[in-house]
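Translate sequence into structure tokens.
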Amino acid sequence: MDLQLASKVAIVTGASRGIGRSIAQTLAAEGMKVTLVARTRGQLEELAGSIPTSSLVQAVDLRTPESPGAVVAATMERFGQVDLLVNNAGATKRGDFFDLTDMDWADGFALKFFGAMRSCRAAWAHLMATRGSIVNIAGIGGRIGTADFTIGGTVNAAVLNLTKALADRGIRDGVRVNAINPGGVATERLQARVRSFATEQGVAPEKAEREMSQAFGVARFGEPVEIARVVAFLASPQAAYCHGAIVDVDGGQTRTL
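Result follows.
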């Protein structure tokens, strides 16, 4: 299937590793020029050198209010257009609700929610000009509450509501807005949890991964590229009728309607 993305321009936040890195690689493989956004310049520059299309490195902290606008401005200066914004940046702290501080909550919202919201606001007019799209990477925690993921679940739920609200606005403005809820994906962060579980249980990492995936109710954990492929599809004209959609890519973990 030709996704018709060649020569278009994407901004990908949280691009230095994990899902974001795979998204950037997949979009570049489809011919998109990519602005790579994260806090770690070295990792971004290494990624930029490995992809086949033009790229722009933006090593910024999206928790800073002016950073999203600066990223969009730099993208326009370099490429002259924005066709896709992928809001992927943002990790939130796990833990017992009563051990999480106000600062933990503020930090969780600062990057994943406010960074995404400000990026949408900054890019919106340019996306109108190209009739482009936004894909927000949230997470199944926004639909399924769990005791040790109160910050992440609440932030993800906010991102999902923002997706629906901006999709409503996008009908008028010609900007498609969708979201993806990844489940357990084999990123560095999840692998660290697997290693910790293996140590606690005194088992091999392979067995720990099987036991953890079974506890999640899935056959296996996902791979970052499996999320990236859905991003590429949602960004493409092939998905022109997908608008305000929230897509669970979780191996069947989410069993609610």
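Note: The mean pLDDT is 95.
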